[in-house]
Structures
1.
Amino acid sequence: MAIATTERSYIRQNIDPHIIDEISRLKESLKAVILAHNYQLPEIQMVADFVGDSLELAMKASKLSGIEYIFFCGVHFMAETAAILNPDSKVIIPDMKAGCPLADMITVEDIKELKKEYKNAPIVAYINTSAAVKAEVDICCTSSNAVKVVNSLPEKKIIFVPDKNLGFFVKRQIREKEIVIWNGFCPTHLWFSEEDVEKARRKYPQAVIVVHPECREEVQLKSDFVLSTGGMFKLPREINAREFVIGTEVGMLFRLKQTYPDREFYPLNERALCPNMKKNTLEKLLNQMRKPENLVQVEKKIADSALKAIKRMLAVT
Ligand code: 13P
């Protein structure tokens, strides 16, 4: 299998084709699937059976059956979600240290405090949270369904954790609810500034500017679309534009360029690289397939409670 190469530093070159062949062989013999998030390295996306955003990956994981191993190429909370949805499969992550600083910005103790302070308000947790936090909340959401999820709740007052920028995005769409927003953020999306948007408008006057809801609110307000990575992936099919400026982690550009070779995609800021997503490499994936060790496990009691919040979200979606 040939791997396309590019001049961009975030797209790796010179992949050994033997690695790809061995991964394909092992995938069959292990009865495995490889799931990958849109931010994964191009070579990982190319060997994956399914690439998607957080919601698509959770939905895919919820539909798998008879699979012995799920090799999950993403960050730890995403692999945990797949493990909760598939208690009969072994979920393996190429690098156990691929965490999420945003998910670490809220703890179980924080949730317990919130419950004490806001007694009757349901808590909505972004999927970027640990399984232990999910186990304590009412419902989960992702960036693509957050508005739907909050709208599905009958209560007027809602607690939204942990991403403040996604929280503000939801608040702008649902004026009639009172939304209490936690103060978390994604450090990678903080790279994007209003100035980046202004510069992009000058440099690419014909382009549509689309950013992730984890970007600062000012950046969202200056852009043309605010979408999840899954929404960004669908956008070129839905609108009549030839050029797109993409305001999210740079891994997203690979999939867009591969899928729409007749369009132009430019990064809003090339420095927006998630060091955790990039901890998973093809070699680490292969090593784990040769000798699966990085098992992502969730304690049964936590998994059972977290599953309720995840399933409630999937039902709304
Ligand atoms: P998406 O659900 O849009 O893929 O977002 C995942 C994420 O963690 C963004 O930083």
2.
Amino acid sequence: MAQIIDGKAVSAAVKDEVAAEAARLREERGLKIGLAVVIVGNDQASRVYVNNKKKACEAVGFQSYEYAMDEDTTQEQLLDLVNVLNRDDRVNGILVQLPLPGHIDEKAIINAISPEKDVDAFHPENVGRIMIGEYSFLPCTPAGVMRLIASTGVDITGKQCVVIGRSNIVGKPMAMLLLQKNGTVTICHSRTQNLKELCLTADILVVAIGRAKFIDGSYIKEGAVVIDVGMDRDENGKLCGDVDFESAEKKAGYITPVPGGVGPMTIAMLMQNTLTAAKQQAGIE
Ligand code: NAP
């Protein structure tokens, strides 16, 4: 039976570290840290994410500034707000909650965020920095996965790592981070021919597909570290991952549950990125 990787406990530890460092900087340097969160429209899931981000800011001692804009906000109005926030010294990090309404070009908005305040690490400059290993921020979900793998004590060096999914926000950066830690990385996607065969070679398997319980125990090598990024709904509408936990935990050495695995890490890493941004803007190492 696999050991469960407790994402709630690891994320709480990350937030405690961030809160302690933020308190120290406030006392010793008078540094106040602020995150601006921009939401456009009335998407319920986005609303929940934004509220969770605000709560996390309070918990670590950051100021959060929320900008809730109407569904019919124009691209120009949103760009104007981003430009104001880029110049606002109280704001160390800017997060524009995605997805945006269809009439707004997400790329144009992401590209307008100052790379120094891009705490989601979606700006092309930050993406490029990840490629060459000279980054300040990592995208929050892959960064959270790396912390979860580290919490198992398993050394990535020389391990066969398989990432399923090649999205810009999860799969691709995930593969780069495993490569930087000296894993031998294979990236799989919807056109991969021999998915099960490849998965069975994986000492570390990261699954980011977006299909409920798609990967069952028959895809998993005995003793593997299995990280389930998926956030899906099962046939009863219950939250579940891309991995069929019940059969997978019989084969894996370590496994993340859904909920309570990767999910809580994403916000914790956002707090970490905001702290990093504030320190860099203040010229603190
Ligand atoms: P995405 O952009 O839809 O990408 C899904 C990837 O899975 C694509 O690369 C796709 O291949 C691949 N794929 C689809 N069907 C496949 C199949 N049958 N076999 C192999 N690969 C297949 O999704 P995403 O944004 O990366 O998110 C993935 C999952 O993670 C979702 O469930 C999402 O909700 C979740 N997520 C969770 C968090 C968190 O905080 N926990 C954060 C972000 C995302 P192609 O490229 O060939 O289409």
